[in-house]
């Protein structure tokens, strides 16, 4: 893990913070080529109510548009959470060379947790994977978000029960 990886993960974390401000799951992604930012994005699934508006997919779409090509050879994608199967597929199909992620995703991660699609030799393209960059920071942002969400849901349930019992 290089200082550049630390720096660019910081930029992905900034994107995740933008998601957090919109009450989205705080996941951010940036795509870098030749040490220059090509694209950045954050999760918008709740805002758009669209299952495919993950940070990685939005960043890939922007980078392809910026480059005028579906091929992102030479690109590194930095993302705060390990890519899911859908995002891993898009990463492979867009020919991203390298993926650097922060927190592991034991429920949906496909860059080492559940499986490793990105380095699977059966595919015609593989990515170098670097895991755990600023892992604690990325993981805490997600954990804190879900703790808050659970508290809010619990408070709403309690309020509904109280209103029901008083006949309001």
Automatic annotation (TrEMBL):
Cofactor(s) named in the record: Zn(2+)
Domain CMP/dCMP-type deaminase: residue ranges: 3-149
Stored InterPro entries: APOBEC/CMP_deaminase_Zn-bd, CMP_dCMP_dom, Cytidine_deaminase-like, tRNA_aden_deaminase
UniProt KW keywords: Hydrolase, Metal-binding, tRNA processing, Zinc
Cofactor comment text: Binds 1 zinc ion per subunit.
Entry GO MF terms: tRNA-specific adenosine-34 deaminase activity; zinc ion binding
UniProt catalytic activity: adenosine(34) in tRNA + H2O + H(+) = inosine(34) in tRNA + NH4(+)
Top-level division of the source organism's lineage: Bacteria
Top enzyme class: hydrolase
Active site, UniProt feature: 56 (proton donor)
SUPFAM superfamilies: Cytidine deaminase-like
E.C. no: 3.5.4.33
Binding annotation for Zn(2+): 54, 84, 87
GO biological process: tRNA wobble adenosine to inosine editing
Subunit structure: Homodimer.
NCBIfam families for the chain: PRK10860.1
Function: Catalyzes the deamination of adenosine to inosine at the wobble position 34 of tRNA(Arg2).
Similarity comment: Belongs to the cytidine and deoxycytidylate deaminase family. ADAT2 subfamily.
Name of the protein this chain belongs to: tRNA-specific adenosine deaminase
Species this chain originates from: Jeotgalibacillus proteolyticus
Origin organism lineage: Bacteria, Bacillati, Bacillota, Bacilli, Bacillales
């Amino acid at each position: 893990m290089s200082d550049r990886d630390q720096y660019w993960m910081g930029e992905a974390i900034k994107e995740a913070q933008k998601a957090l401000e919109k009450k989205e799951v705080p996941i951010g992604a940036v795509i870098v080529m030749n040490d220059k930012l090509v694209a950045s994005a954050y999760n918008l699934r709740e805002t758009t109510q669209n299952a495919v508006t993950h940070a990685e997919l939005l960043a890939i779409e922007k980078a392809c548009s910026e480059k005028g090509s579906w091929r992102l050879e030479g690109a590194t994608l930095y993302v705060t959470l390990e890519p899911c199967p859908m995002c891993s597929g898009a990463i492979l199909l867009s020919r991203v060379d390298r993926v650097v992620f922060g927190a592991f995703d034991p429920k949906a991660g496909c860059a080492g947790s559940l499986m490793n699609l990105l380095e699977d030799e059966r595919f015609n393209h593989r990515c170098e994977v670097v895991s755990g960059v600023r892992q604690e920071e990325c993981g805490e942002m997600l954990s804190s978000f879900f703790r808050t969400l659970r508290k809010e849901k619990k408070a709403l349930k309690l309020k509904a029960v109280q209103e029901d019992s008083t006949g309001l």
